[in-house]
Structure formats: structure tokens, C-alpha cells
Amino acid sequence: MFEPAFVLLHAPSVYDFRERSILFGPVSDVVPSSPVFEMYPIGFTSIAEYVQRHGYRTKIINLALRMLNDPAYDVPAVLRKLHPRAFGIDLHWMPHAQGSVEVARVCKQVHPDIPVVFGGLSASYFHEELIQYDAVDYVVRGDSAEEPMRQLLDCIAQGREPADVPNLTWKDAAGQVHVNPLTWVPDDVDGYKLDYTYVVEAVVRDRDLKSYVPFDGWLDYPATAAFTCRGCTRGCVTCGGSAAAFRRVTNRGRIVYRSPEAVIRDIKSVERFTRAPVFILGDFRQAGDEYADRLLTLAERERVRAQIMMEFFGPADEAFMQRVGRVFPNFVLEISLESHDEAVRRAFGKPYDNAAIEATMQYALEAGCSRLDLFFMIGLPLQTYQSVLDTVDYCEMLLERFKDYGCVFPFVAPMAPFLDPGSLAFENPDRYGYRLIHRTLEEHRQALLQPSWKYTLNYETQWLTRDEIVQASYEAGRRLNRVKERLGLIDAATAADVAARIDQAQAVLARIDAVMAEPDPAARDAQLAALKAQVDESSISTICEKKELNVPVGLLRINVPRTVAYFARRWAGLALGVFRR
Q1: Among residues 237, 241, 243, 245, which one has the least CA distance to residue 425?
Q2: Residues 6+ apart with CB under 8 A from 231
Q3: What is the pLDDT of residue 216?
Q4: Strand 278-281 and strand 224-227: pairing?
Q5: Rounded mean pLDDT of 218-243?
Q6: What is the rounded CA–CA span in Å between residue 544 and residue 412?
């Protein structure tokens, strides 16, 4: 009754990162997770909620975070104690290519007869290669794995072959591979929830908070999300979530939106447990003015109190920003401009000019935006080394222009370590000025074991070599760090720490390059191992302080009274629930 029927496992980027000496670099400096990429995808929550709702008790174990926070955490020992009907492993983002397969191998070592299921966009792209690994039994393809996963669990529970399960790549008892048609591409996704009620209940039920925490530091900064759509309307050339990539990888010919009612329902669900910000994933204007108006109307009517974070994919007018400010006081806005250079931005797939987006910034700040995050990227079509440095100058101009608001935060980071499989640039590198270095799944897996992120990068451009991408990233970080200190966005101590980490990272990178010239593999490995302590210190908050990303959430993050009252009503029913195995 209390044994989970389905266990979802989130792997670190590199399985034995605790032993290996790898300079991951600034690949995660502007995302919530560490270089281990311990943040599991939001699909974990929606899949777990869905299959549990249909009778299969589900457990999430964030192996990456458990391993990161506990040097003694023994993955085989933990998995040996579990006896589910199936293990599920995500390969959504390519930085998990090495760790995910290694975790699958551990599953098979301790439980040879329990099937291992993969899912995620990258798993979908590489499904035919992924299924060839001995430790992989099934790959659920597409962007909506909830229902195919439920059907697969039915087949496993009943001991029958999943010949009719849509979107499934699988092996039969003889080891023969079958590729079922990718036909489950639902036009209605309201039935799938990003419902944190499931997570909170599971934590109490399993008495295991640590396994469910989404990323390191989440308890201090419990950011949550509500998703508006599956798919995208945009064509950013390096993005594996672009419209073209979704067509190629998931067979989704057009974007599908959750109803505004479903989005607001999820936000209100979050409000029961936390007062932290809620990120509305996906520009909710993509569906058109009527959709955006409906969402704002419902939010106002339902009295949404959470601080709302949102992302815009392009400019907005003054009237719209004023309405956003009235409905979501102190809202947070994120815009990824990619480059200050309009030609570079257009080549990347974002055809708007600086004047329009700068006007949007002004409108947002005047409407009460409490924080405006601007993201710029290194490794774009047409982008030169000098163009990267010019982007820092542009950031300085914006900070000077909006300094009276004191809430504009620019970030410049490399597009690393990989071009997304399925993206326009990955499929047609020559057309967009890229040279791909790694193409197959196994090549990406081996690249992740390289001693520094320079050797892991799977691309160069016509305008920037791998060396130049690395050096431009550190130099841009150094210059922007000085600008932020001068204009008061960070204090002197923080600026000094970031500058010191950049210097150390570059020094360590130079030493790794020298070690790589060593012809004797044993001597090379010994020298790399001796650098591990310095390497580990040079991959976190390198080009900026990660805490710059956080929105202040106050002292009371979890709404304890409401949470207790909720479980007083729910726990009796939950304890009596019977789940199939």
C-alpha cells in the first residue's frame, strides 16, 4: 500500500561529479540550479500528479540535489530499498546526458527486472539512440508524457506489451526495438496541472522533504511556476523549445494553451502554501489579446496576491503595462534581449529593435515593476568578441538611464554547454554560422566528462571560436561586475568576490589547458585530480553572484497556518487512499 508504484529520478549532469575534477564554468550562473543542474523539470510534477491521480502512487527523488548536499549519499543503497513497477528518468536538457544514463545503469544493477523509462525533449530527439543502451527499456516521446506514461504503467502492471501506447519507443522481451507512432499531441492540456499540492502532500506522506526539493536553496527561495502553454510561437535559432523544434521533436504543429482559468487555479493553489513569487511560464500574450485580457481579468477577480514574475518575448505598449501593474502590483518582468545589436538579435530570431524594447522597459517601470531582469547571451550568429563587449556598454547605458528606479538587473552569460538538439542551428549549422563539434548522444555524454567547459562546448561560430567564447564570457562578466558596483546594484564586497572568482577561474582554466598537453594519461589524470578543490570553487557565481537572480521574499516564506489547516482536512482521506501497484 505504501510502496511507490512509480519512482521519478532526477540525475546530476555528471553522475560522479563528486569525484571528478571538472571546471563546469559559468554555465549555470544565471539559472536557479548549480552546475550539477539539480533542478528537475516541471514535467516531473505534472506527470507525478497525473499518474497518481489515476491510481499509481508516485515518488520523486532529486538524486542530483541529494548527492550535492550529502557527500555520503549512496545512490545504489537508496534505490535498492525501492521496488516500484518502474523507474522514470528525465533527459529533458542535454546537460543531463551523462548522468541520466549512468543512473539508469545503477537502476539495472540493483533491480535488473524493473523497467527504466526515459522522457523529455532531449530523450525524444535521441530516442532511437537512447533505446540502444542496455539500461533503457522505454522512451516516452513528445511534450505531453502524462497520458502515455499512464498507459505504459497499465501495461507493465498487467504484464502485456505496450504495442498500442502512443509516442513510445520500446524493447520487447527479445530485445527488438519498436517505435510506436507519435500521435498523442493533445490540443487540450487543462487536465495537466503544475500543482504543488501534490508535492506538499507527497513530502508529508513520505516524510522526505529533501528528495522533493526542486533545487539547491529552494527552501530559502521557494520560487514556483504556472505554465501557460506547450509549444512556442517563436523561432529562436538555438532553442530546443522553439516552434520549429517542437514540430520536429514532438510533432506539435501549433502551440496549445492552457485556459486562463487553469493558470489562475494553479497560482491560487500555490498561494495556499507559500508567499514566494510565482513565475508565469511563457509569454501569456502569445495567445492573443483576448487570452491576455481574460487572464488578467480572472487574476483581478480571484484576488491573486502572490508576487507575479513574467517573461515577455517582445515589446508591449503602455496601456498593457499599466493594466499589468494594476492587476499584479510589484510584478517582476524578464526579457531576453540576447544582444544589444539589432542585427545579431534578428539573426537569432527576435525581430524587434532597441527603441521598442526600451520603451517597454520604461512603461513597465512606470507601471510599478519592482524588478526588471535583462538577459544577454554569448555565442550568437553574427556576434563577434567586440560585439560581446559592446553589449556590456549597452547594459551600462540602460543602468544609467533607469538608475532612479534601482531595479534593473542585466546579465550576460554564455550559451553553454550545448546547442539544443532539434533547434534550427543544430539541424542546419552551416546556414546559421555554426560548426557542430558533437552530434550524437554518446558524443555529448563523453563531452560532459571533459576537464573544463571549453572542451565540453559542442559548437563554435564563424565569429567566435571556443576559446573566444570562454574568454569573452569571463571578460564580459568582469566588466559588467564593475558597472554594477559603480552604479550600486551590488556592494563592494560582492563585486570583489566575483572579480576574484573570475581571476581564479581563468587561472585554473589555463592550468587545465597546460595539463591537457601532458601526453601520459595517468599523469594527466593525477594533475587534474590535484586541481579539484580549485575547480569546484570556480564554477559557482563566477561571472555574477547567483543571489542577484533572487527576488526578495521576506522572512515568512511558507504559509504555515494555511498549510496546517489544509492538511488537517486532507490527511485523513490521503491516509486511507489505496494505490495500485
Answers
A1: 237
A2: 143, 243, 246, 250, 252, 254, 255, 256
A3: 84
A4: parallel
A5: 91
A6: 9
Tell me: the pLDDT tens digits for 146-167?
999 999 999 999 999 999 999 9
Phi and psi at residue 332, in whole multiples of 5°?
A: -115, 135
**CB contact at 8 A, 311 and 332:** no
What structural domains and CATH numbers belong to the chain?
6-190 (3.40.50.2300), 371-547 (no CATH)
**Bridge-based pairing state of the strands 138-140 and 229-230:** unpaired
Q: What is the CA radius of gyration of the chain?
A: 23
| Residue 398, CA atoms < 13 Å, CB-side half-sphere | 30
Phi-psi region of 159 (alpha: psi -120 to 50; beta: other; left: phi over 0): left
Give the count of alpha carbons within 13 A of 421, CB side only: 23
DSSP 8-state symbol, 120: S
* C-alpha–C-alpha distance, residues 250 and 257, integer Å: 16
| Neighbour tally for 471: CB within 10 Å | 17
The residue among 325, 328, 398 whose CA lies nearest residue 366 is 325
What is the distance between the alpha carbons of residues 19 and 71, in angstroms, rounded to a whole number? 10
Give the H or E element holding residue 140: strand 138-140
Angle at 531 between CA 442 and CA 94, to 5 degrees: 25
Question: CB under 8 Å to 552, separation ≥6 — which residues?
Answer: none
Alpha carbons 99 and 26: distance in angstroms, whole number: 19
Report the half-sphere exposure of 444 (CA within 13 A, side-chain side).
Answer: 28
Q: pLDDT by residue (tens digit) across 6-31?
A: 999 999 999 999 999 999 999 888 88
User: What is the identity of the amino acid at 213?
Assistant: V
List the one residue out of 465, 502, 507 whose CA is nearest residue 480: 502
Cell of 198: 501534490
Cβ neighbours around 170 below 10 Å, total: 24
Based on DSSP, count helices (H) and strands (E) in the chain, helices before strands.
Answer: 25, 17
Cβ-based burial of 18 (10 A; exposed 0-12, middle 13-18, buried ≥19): middle
CA 476 to chain centre: 23
